[in-house]
Structure formats: structure tokens, C-alpha cells
Amino acid sequence: MRTVGIDLGGTKVMAVLVENGEVLAKAKQPTPVTGGPDAVITAMVAAARKVDPGGTAVGVGIGAPGPVVPGSGVLPAAPNLPGWDHDVDVVGRMSAALDGRPVKLDNDVNVGTLAEWKLGAGRGVDDLLGVFAGTGVGAGLVLDGRLRQGPRGLAGEIGHTFVAFDQFREAPVGRGELEDFAGRRSLQRWVEVAPHAESALMRRLMGRGRLKSKAWADGVEAKDPLTLRLVNRASSALSAAIASAITLVDVERVVLGGGFAERLGEPFRERVEAEVAERAFAGQTAPVVAARLGDTGGAVGAALLLEHT
Amino acid sequence: MRTVGIDLGGTKVMAVLVENGEVLAKAKQPTPVTGGPDAVITAMVAAARKVDPGGTAVGVGIGAPGPVVPGSGVLPAAPNLPGWDHDVDVVGRMSAALDGRPVKLDNDVNVGTLAEWKLGAGRGVDDLLGVFAGTGVGAGLVLDGRLRQGPRGLAGEIGHTFVAFDQFREAPVGRGELEDFAGRRSLQRWVEVAPHAESALMRRLMGRGRLKSKAWADGVEAKDPLTLRLVNRASSALSAAIASAITLVDVERVVLGGGFAERLGEPFRERVEAEVAERAFAGQTAPVVAARLGDTGGAVGAALLLEHT
């Protein structure tokens, strides 16, 4: 069966047409910065029509930032989406605009995990953790062969788990959550609070803009001490949170993806995997493998929502 | 239906006969310290016969320390059980000794959580975390109305999740896991490594033996500064791990039990609950309620294994 998948992000709307796990068409457009939810929904409808002009798809799946209460079809206020400041019935509105065809909505990282599980690096296991380290850090869980959503759609928010409980009220950046050490947004803030003498290279790479993943890879390449310290701390915090998740819910495999992790590549993944094994309870670790689907994973996973939830 | 439940602990074997959630008979005996698994199995058979002399129970459930691979019936080497240094087919041997009646085996904290969920403070929700803080710290998870075991039986080992990732290789006690801050065994070690001037009261309460939960309650009562600091740090580490679990798997309620937490009572529970709420991601917390079944909870939960797994 053919389905359309849409990955709704803060900067772009990516759409794909998928059949039997193959991407037949792909389209990308910027997320509207004005017009709020109305403009975003219009853009998503246009993207769906662009990849499926004949209307052959049986339905549309959407991955979006933030917790989605299972079955609600509602995307609550999302700080990463321009002007998305209240609950919106995304499923109802999209379905109405698409001749009543079924529409499903889930969290973007959940659908990214679904894609890796069905078509990527997570194939063949029933219990999987997908971790995506980019601007922030998110995760999805497959337990007993089902994508875990949780009663409030919170499941998988690994970036907000506490890896440094004693820094809750006194950290220079954040409050001791994984994302505070391993998300690109926070990593930039650590550079900003570092003494100028230590952070010269990273400040130069930053200029007036954002420290992109490439800048972090360049800093590692140049053996810049601050970069190495922050990146190694990121991998250590990630390994702690991953080892904790393995121990708390028992998964057989971990897929590691996201722009930051993917740009740092194999050495970073190896370092995380080795430290996860070292931290494992009673020697019970799990392999940490690289995500395979790259930046279309979210849209492909959204397309799979019609079949797998 | 009538079932026997056995809670196999490091110091005692507790057995109950249960029907419709009512405890009809109860028996307790010390865990044999010599004779290894053979002696322990003999003691469990005797305990089952003692609470059910007429053999009216349809089967026997056992809760035991350590991960149990679902369906295996095997209890691996368990450091807390005297002489239990290799895998033992507990289900096969118990069933053979009990005229072939069905026997089920699971982790002791999982069955404690099952009991609270079916008969205690966890009734009425489909997604529950049971946390038990005593000598160590363990937990059980109910997800989507089912006790989560995990492919390797690891699920729920919250005591081994990392709450202080940066202390992995340099902590005075442990390696930054929850249990290192909130388990009674580790709390005693923190007293032992503290300067004598600070730890005079707790050293006196300890004598040559162990610091029992009552000693911690007495130290709090006396407003001993070291006790207060360690107990407050325990509640903070617990709240971090609980908030992380709520965020990672999404549970609606948390049951807090175990000898240490129950002895410190309502003020401790309130403190944990308040800090869990403060740490919650996007305001999505969960109530933390006191366990209700006390020290028979494990045995009662083991009896429920016959009905609910």
C-alpha cells in the first residue's frame, strides 16, 4: 500500500511517498515562519499533493515535534514550530483537506525510530531504543514489538532524563538533563560561558550564527581542547543515559542517529558503544549501531504510521 | 483460585497462601546459609507445604533477587543468596517436588510491583512504576496494563541507572548510580568515608553492625547534619531517577516502598514527590504514593504470577 509521510520540523517540511518500504517521491520546503498553524497545515497539504499528485496514497502520516497523546490527533503548543502556541487538531484538519483520507500523527522521534526499526538499523529485534542527537536529544522505544507511546505520549523523551542530579539547581547550563550536555543548542551555550582563551576556535567557527554539527567535527579534527572536552562529555552523558535506558526497560539494540551524532561519525558511535558496555548492569549491554535512513527517516517513519500503529 | 507465593530473600523465605487477593496463611523462615541452592529449594518446598498443607493451591509463584529471563524458570547466580553461584532451574525443581504443579518465577521487585498494582497503591492505572528503596534500590514497570519483563528480564533495574554520569570513574562510593546515593548499603559506606567529626552520631548508631533503616530515621529525628545531608541527597537522587523514568517510559503513577523509604515515612515521600514534580518534563509529572502492602507484598505478588503473566 502507498502512503504519504510528512516530517514537520522547525525549519523544513519534508514529504515522501512510500510503497513497500521504497521511497517513490520526495519533496522538501521551508516551514512557513508566519501564519502560524494555518500556514503550516496548508504547507503540509501542499507537500502531500506534491509527492502524490494523483492522490493514490491510502493515507498520510505526520511526525511532529513534541508529545502527542495517542489517538488524539492533536499537536499541542510546540516551541520549535513558528507561531504554534496552542493545541491544534492536526489530524482532523489535514484529513478534511485531503478528502477525508485517514491521517495519523505521532512524535517526530517516535516515527524516526519506527523507520529504523522497520527498514533501517533496527530491523529484526522486538525491543529497541532509537536515540537522535541533534539540536536537542530525543528517543523512541519499541517494546515487545510495538512502538511505545505512553498514555500522554511522553515515551522516549530521553533528552530530559537526568544524568547529573546534583546539578539540578546550580548548573551553568541547563539543570543536569542529558540534552544539557549532548544537545547542540546547549553545547553552544557551554562554549559561550567558557573563558575566551579556551574557546577561541569555537567562537571563531560560531561567528554570529549557530555552531553547526560541522563546526563540532572541525573542532575535533583540529584537536581543539575545549571541543574535545565538550564532545567527550557529550558521549559520556549519552552513554550514561543509554545504559540507564537499557537497564530500566531492557532493549536488545540501540540505534544512534541525529545530525550531531551522524556528523561526528564512527569514532563518536564507537566511543558511546564502548562506554555503554562499561556502564552496563551485570554485563548486560546492547550494541549501539548507526542509524541508516539519514534525514528522510522521519518522513518515512511517518508514512509507516498507517501500517504499524 | 488459590495460589502460593514465595518471596525468596537473602535473609528470609516468606510464603503466603492467597485467594481472591486475601492472604489466608503466612509463614516465614530464615534462608538457609549453608547447603546452597539445594537447601534453599528444600526450604521453599517446606514453606509452600506449611501455608498449604492440604495441597489446595493450583500453583506456586516465586519472587527472587536478580534478573530472570522470561519463561526460562532459571534463577542465575545471585550474590544476595548464600551459595547461589550458578544458574539453577528453580521452576523445574520446585514443580517436580510439588507433584508437577505449575511454578512461576520472576524478579522479586517485579512481583512486588505486581502486588501493588493489583491489590495495593497502584490499582486502577495501566502504566505504573513501583520503586523499592531498601538495602539496594529496585523497581518494576507496568506498561499498557502488563508487567514489563524485557527480553533478558532486566526491566525495572532503576537502582543501576546513572544519576551522576560525571562520577563514573571518580566517586568515593560507587560509580554514580541511583543505588550509590539512595540504597542503604551505599549510604552506610558514605558514613564510613566521612570525617569522624561529622559522622559521630551515625558511627555510634552503627556500632559494629549495619546501619538499619531505624538508625537513619533516628538521625533525621535528631537533626544530625550528616544524616540530613545524605537522606536529602538520597531523596534528590531518587526524584531524579523517578522523573527520568516518567519521562522515558511515561507512567501515570509511582508507588514508593521498601524498608528505607517506608521507615522514613511521609516526609520522605512528600519530598520525593515534590522534587519529581519540579523536575518533570513539560509539567508532566505523576503522583508518588506510598506502597501499601508492606513486607508481605513480594510474596503476595509472587502468588499473583499464576494469574497475571
Ends of chain A: how far apart?
15 Å
Query: Which percent range describes the beta-strand content of chain A?
Result: 15-25%
What would CATH call the architecture of the largest domain in chain A?
A: 2-Layer Sandwich
Annotated CATH topology of the largest domain in chain A: Nucleotidyltransferase, domain 5
Domain count of chain A: the total is: 2
- The largest beta-sheet of chain A arranges its strands as 3-2-1-4-7
Oligomer: homodimer
Percentage of residues assigned to helices of chain A? 40-55%
CATH-assigned homologous superfamily of the largest domain in chain A = ATPase, nucleotide binding domain
- DSSP summary, beta strand count of chain A: 12
Q: How would you spell out the order of helices and strands of chain A?
A: EEEHEEEHEHEEEHHHHHEHEH
> How would you sum up the global shape of chain A?
globular
Summary of the model, kept short:
Chain A is an alpha/beta fold and 309 residues long. Chain A contains ten helices and twelve strands.
Give an overview of the whole structure:
The first copy, chain A, has helices at residues 36-51, 90-97, 108-119, 178-182, 184-193, 200-206, 213-221, 225-249, 259-279, 297-308; strands at residues 2-8, 12-19, 22-30, 60-64, 74-75, 88-89, 103-107, 128-133, 137-143, 146-147, 253-257, 288-290. The first copy, chain A, is an alpha/beta fold and 309 residues long. Chain A has two domains: 2-113 and 296-308, Nucleotidyltransferase, domain 5, CATH 3.30.420.40; 124-292, ATPase, nucleotide binding domain (Nucleotidyltransferase, domain 5, 2-Layer Sandwich). In chain A, the strands form three sheets. A five-stranded mixed β-sheet of chain A has the order 3-2-1-4-7. In chain A, strands 10-9-8-11-12 form a five-stranded mixed β-sheet, sandwiched between helices. In chain A, strands 5-6 form a two-stranded antiparallel ribbon. In chain A, strand 9 and strand 10 form a beta hairpin. In chain A, helix 3 (108-119) crosses helix 10 (297-308), helix 7 crosses helix 9 and helix 8 crosses helix 9 (259-279). At the A-B interface, strand 9 and helix 8 of A face strand 9 and helix 8 of B.
